């Protein structure tokens, strides 16, 4: 039974993701986490008796959080329900509260409203390792072949703890020592988790704030707004003559920015600019930034020119985090805007990254000038092809025609670009990314490979 993808359990609510599944996942995860706390944290076993649960604004969130809470309490855990909050708030509270051993976030991140997901966090506030995920899947599968009755035991308690979000908000505000007064900032809150604290944090630090899509609305979360649809933000920044704008995804663990001219500041630029700042302060071990295979070649070459070291991983924040822990790196992230700085957080945090980028613009130069001084990206095209058949997606490398076409394209590009073809870990999509010295070259090979995927993998 394979449930966990690159970012927890995620899918369409009602067919794949149901209340019954959430209940069973809660019981199974509760059992494994009980074993972990006894094995790995015996000194905390009597103190760490709670699991924190947060959710974004999706209408299915209450149903799923209630079901998984029932499973966790059945397994003997107390459940502390935080309610609407950003995903990094759950990670922060889990890492910094001795009573909390693990966390759960009910969210499908940037996915459309009809999807939802379940993300787990361990005692240190990081996402569960693959070994623990597999153990949960094994227990869940075994329960599927056994009597589902639960033996009598000490049941856990369910408590509302929404006030704990104040601790997270305070941590954001104290992470920077810069007064943001004088800055005019537009925030696109995507009708999701960012609606809770982001506007207040920026205003508390002195910024003038204009908000878009600022009410939590589970039926409109991510719809034509947020970090996957930047046009409303770009328009608002220019209309209000703002200094910059930030767009968050549904659970606020990622952010993209725009400068005052409406130019997009993606995760590559955020990493470059924040990395420069940390390097100048001698706070970047080995001048290393960890990113993924999606990072732009222009970013990589510019960072190397500064004397920096850029390490690439597979796509997914869990892989970035694992490499950062292995190498001791303090800054890493993805082009999509998921940025992790271990000086201040244990997980990627869109609000944290936005605040530090705003602080850089206040301290050094306007964001557009910082952009001008950074790097020129290679033309990069990313196209998605919907492939509903899971086996076709997962086994795409067995398609000889596609593999041969990729090899031909890579031979043609040489050191003038690169190609990445992969199956999405969160959606029924094949993703094709081509990067080249010229747009025409990138466009040619992108269209060629997309057409071949549609012919070979998409069933009529």
TrEMBL record:
Active site: 109 (phosphoserine intermediate)
Binding sites annotated in the UniProt record for Mg(2+): 109, 249, 251, 253
Pfam families reported in the protein's UniProt record: PGM_PMM_I, PGM_PMM_II, PGM_PMM_III, PGM_PMM_IV
Keywords: Isomerase, Magnesium, Metal-binding, Phosphoprotein
NCBIfam families: glmM
Stated role: Catalyzes the conversion of glucosamine-6-phosphate to glucosamine-1-phosphate.
Family annotation (HAMAP family): GlmM_B
Family stated for the protein in its record: Belongs to the phosphohexose mutase family.
Protein name: Phosphoglucosamine mutase
Gene that this sequence comes from: glmM
């Amino acid at each position: 039974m394979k449930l966990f993808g690159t970012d927890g359990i995620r899918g369409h609510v009602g067919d794949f993701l149901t209340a019954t599944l959430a209940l069973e996942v809660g019981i199974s995860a509760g059992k494994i986490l009980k074993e972990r706390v006894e094995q790995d944290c015996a000194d905390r076993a009597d103190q760490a008796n709670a699991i924190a649960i947060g959710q974004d604004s999706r209408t299915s969130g209450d149903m799923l959080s209630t079901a998984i809470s029932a499973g966790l309490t059945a397994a003997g855990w107390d459940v502390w329900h935080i309610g609407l909050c950003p995903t990094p708030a759950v990670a922060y509270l889990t890492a910094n509260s001795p009573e909390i051993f693990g966390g759960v976030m009910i969210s499908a991140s940037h996915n459309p409203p009809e999807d939802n997901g379940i993300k787990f966090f361990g005692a240190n506030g990081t996402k569960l390792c693959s070994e623990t995920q597999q153990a949960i899947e094994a227990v869940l599968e075994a329960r599927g072949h056994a009597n589902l009755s639960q033996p009598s035991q000490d049941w856990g308690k369910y408590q509302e703890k929404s006030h704990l979000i104040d601790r997270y908000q305070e941590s954001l505000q104290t992470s920077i020592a810069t007064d943001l007064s004088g800055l005019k900032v537009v925030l696109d809150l995507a009708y999701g988790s960012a609606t809770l604290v982001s506007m207040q944090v920026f205003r508390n630090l002195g910024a003038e704030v204009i908000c878009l899509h600022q009410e939590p609305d589970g039926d409109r979360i991510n719809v034509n707004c947020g970090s996957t649809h930047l046009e409303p933000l770009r328009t608002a920044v220019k209309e209000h003559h703002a200094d910059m704008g930030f767009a968050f995804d549904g659970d606020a663990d990622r952010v993209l920015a725009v400068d005052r001219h409406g130019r997009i500041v993606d995760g590559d630029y955020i990493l470059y600019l924040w990395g420069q700042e940390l390097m100048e302060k001698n706070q970047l071990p080995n001048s290393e930034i960890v990113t993924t295979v999606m990072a732009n070649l222009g970013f990589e070459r510019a960072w190397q020119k500064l004397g920096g070291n850029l390490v690439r991983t597979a796509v997914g924040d869990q892989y970035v985090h694992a490499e950062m822990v292995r190498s001791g790196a303090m800054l890493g992230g993805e082009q999509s805007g998921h940025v992790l700085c271990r000086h201040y957080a244990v997980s990627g945090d869109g609000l944290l990254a936005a605040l530090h980028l705003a602080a850089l613009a206040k301290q050094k130069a306007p964001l557009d000038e910082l952009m001008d001084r950074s790097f020129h990206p290679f033309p990069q095209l990313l196209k998605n092809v919907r492939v509903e058949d899971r086996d076709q997606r997962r086994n795409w490398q067995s398609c000889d025609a596609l593999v041969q076409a990729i090899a031909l394209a890579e031979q043609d590009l040489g050191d003038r670009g690169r190609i990445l073809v992969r199956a999405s870990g969160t959606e029924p999509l094949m993703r094709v990314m081509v990067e080249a010295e010229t747009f025409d070259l990138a466009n040619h090979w992108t269209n060629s490979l997309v057409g071949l995927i549609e012919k070979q993998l998409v069933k009529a």
